[in-house]
Amino acid sequence: MEKESSMKMNKSRYIAQAGVIAAVYAVASLITMFFLQGLAWGPVQFRVSEALVVLAFFTPAAIPGLGIGCVIANTCALFITGAGVLGLLDVAFGSLATFLGALWCWHFRKRVGIGLMGPVVANALIVPAYLPILLAGFGFYTIPFTSISFEGMYVAMYLFGVVAVGIGEALVLYVLGYPLFKALHKAHIFQSTKAK
């Protein structure tokens, strides 16, 4: 009886953690999109909320929490920007990238440096695959801050996106996410995880 009660409590804690993480990620993403606008969702991305992926080093509840939070944020962004059907690409595949990145972090939770590479690689490879299609729907064909046009050049846009999204994600994770990880680890908010 006591074991069953403990299992129910653990399941409730897991669901509660996942829900809170989803809500925090969604709100942080929307705030980032509001303040950084095109730098949060365009060809060059600095989605500050991605720093929260480090929560997956502490609890497996962060994996569905971050994935659901990304679905919520990208769905809200779809309605705010009026992206229409093309925006569903971001809802599906952008959320998949965040989910896979969180899964990688949990898998490599004992090796934080390697763990942080997972979200960078997932976002760098997945997001640029649909981003040119999404941006073309808005009429964006040029590289930000330049006059270089990639209209009709999907491969070039994809390769640019791999570099740009990868750099943006790496900066967010290593400059913001890693210090967040260290602070959470030191504060013992979650069960402790040894960083190597």
Descriptive overview:
With 196 residues, the chain is mainly alpha-helical. The chain has a single domain (2-39, 46-187), classed as Orthogonal Bundle (Arp2/3 complex 21 kDa subunit ARPC3). It has helices at residues 2-36, 38-41, 62-81, 87-107, 112-115, 117-138, 154-187. α3 runs antiparallel to α4 (87-107) and α4 (87-107) packs antiparallel against α6. The radius of gyration is 18 Å and the shape is globular.
What series of H and E elements makes up the topology?
A: HHHHHHH
Tally the beta strands.
0
Helix content: over 70%
Please compute the radius of gyration using only Cα atoms.
18 Å
Taking all residues together, what is the mean pLDDT?
85
General shape: globular
Report the total helices.
Answer: 7
Largest sheet: none
The structural domain count equals 1
